[in-house]
Amino acid sequence: EFSKGINGLQKVILRESRGSSAEVYLYGGHVTSWKNDHGEELLFLSSKAIFKPPKAIRGGIPICFPQFASHGTLDQHGFARNRFWAVDEDPPPFPTNTLNKAFVDLILKPSEEDMKIWPHSFEYRLRIALGPGGDLMLTSRIRNTNSDGKPFSFTFAYHTYFSVSDISEVRVEGLETLDYLDNLQNKERFTEQGDALTFESEVDKIYLSTPTKIAIIDHEKKRTFVLRKDGLPDAVVWNPWDKKAKAMADFGDDEYKHMLCVEAAAVEKAVTLKPGEEWKGRLELSAVPSSYCSGQ
Ligand code: BG6
Q1: Ligand 1 center–CA 98 separation, angstroms
Q2: Which of 71, 79, 89, 263 is the most exposed place for a label (fewest CB within 10 A)?
Q3: How do the pLDDT tens digits run along the chain, 296 residues long?
């Protein structure tokens, strides 16, 4: 279902028979909303988000490609998040089963301008699907279509902003005892010591070689997000807290209390593709009542 979104930007709405839904802007190939079958919003979208190129939309699921953050020479987080994607009318078969799923296929190819800043030809196919239980699945397939025989390397993240009731009541399970690079301390490497992660100040860490399943437990809402990933070894955890929040023009001063980014990513080791090769990175999100999976 296609319609005009904010500022006339084109969006696609996915609806699943039991009532869950998702909204995808072609600008950025960006999921801006994911609602469960009670109509509750599960992703955070800033009330100050700017829906206007070249600014990336603040919230939802921006795609960081071909560069995560400042790990390279491109602008922060690469350019996929502020390009206009197209609907892929004739996608090659995807490995994902689409039975009972609402889905849309998008494609991004570099423009001549893009090739000036990142001189590689690629086809990036993104399938966004909503499963019968309301699960949201994103599958990225990136192919090197260089005709000059050259490989290329990239880093990547699904920069997911989860909506939480109160950041001080949130716990993340699955990252304890892992090594991480701390962006707030010159990207130095540390080892997480404690239990599940909790939050009382700014955090900007890249957890390395993480398990395929991570849980975000929102005690107040009694909701647990379960994130499953494939092809994406790392996980970025980000919350700007009060000072950085104030410094961001497209983010409300107090909104940091109601969001947490947990980003399935490939950062520490860049992905390298030879011409003709394809990489696949998958993210699956579900939201379940906490008691079902954490015993809380
Ligand atoms: C996170 C990075 O993924 O994204 C942070 O780890 C960064 O360092 C944040 O501040 C937001 O980035 P941006 O470009 O969307 O403001």
Answers
A1: 32
A2: 89
A3: 899 999 999 999 999 999 999 999 999 999 999 999 999 999 999 999 999 999 999 999 999 999 999 989 999 999 999 999 999 998 988 776 776 789 999 999 999 999 999 999 999 999 999 998 899 999 999 999 999 999 999 999 999 999 999 999 999 999 999 999 999 999 999 999 988 999 999 999 999 999 999 999 999 998 999 999 999 999 999 999 999 999 999 999 999 999 999 999 999 999 999 999 999 999 999 999 986 554 44
Instruction: Indicate the class that CATH gives domain 2-294.
Output: mainly beta
Q: Could you tell me the distance, in angstroms and rounded to a whole number, from the CA of residue 251 to the centre of ligand 1?
A: 12
Residues with CB under 6 A from ligand 1: 56, 69, 76-77, 159, 183, 204, 236, 238, 263
Q: Give, for ligand 1, the residue of 46, 67, 204 to mutate: max count of ligand atoms closer than 8 Å to Cβ.
A: 204
Listed by start position, the domains of the chain span 2-294
Task: Answer whether 0.90 is exceeded by the pTM.
Answer: yes
The single residue listed with the structure tokens 């309301």 is 134
